[in-house]
Design a protein that fits this description.
Length: 154
């Protein structure tokens, strides 16, 4: 039997781990993304953006959830959905933040996000390979922040 308590945490830390830092705009957007991702079934990836026509308003443009790993959640679900939404509004993945509900066990998701043009990543941290993911972001010119709070939902 698997049991799980309700996830009632609404205020995580936000610690930038890379050379590239988050602006206040991207921190607010990232907090929105964490609230969204915590409601998705793990392994969850949420792609969020600020709606250009409505400053301060945010939108989930792509989500991948319930997959065996985050690579599939990103490439098979979140990105195709986001591209469909963004094409209709002349948006770009470059202006989206990728939120993960749990840490990255490898740098593969970071590198894949870079291939798609995603520059902003938020995850809880806590993997023994966190430094490899931070190094990948620094190599790729991406920003990464850790929240310190895992929102793994089954």
């Amino acid at each position: 039997v698997l049991t799980q308590q309700n996830d009632l945490v609404f205020e995580e830390n936000f610690e930038v781990k890379t050379k590239k830092v988050f602006s206040d705009q991207f921190i607010a957007l990232s907090r929105f993304g964490v609230y969204v991702a915590r409601s998705l079934k793990s392994n969850a990836i949420a792609l969020v953006r600020e709606i250009p026509e409505f400053k301060g308003s945010f939108q989930l443009v792509g989500a991948g959830q319930g997959q065996p790993n985050r690579v599939e959640a990103l490439s098979a679900l979140a990105v195709p959905r986001a591209k469909s939404v963004l094409e209709k509004s002349s948006g770009s993945l470059k202006n989206c933040v990728l939120i993960s509900d749990a840490f990255f066990p490898f740098r593969d998701t970071v590198d894949l996000a870079h291939e798609y043009g995603i520059e902003w990543i938020v995850q809880p941290g806590g993997s023994i390979k966190d430094q490899q993911c931070i190094d990948a972001c620094n190599e790729n010119g991406q920003a990464m922040a850790f929240t310190g709070m895992r929102h793994f939902k089954h």
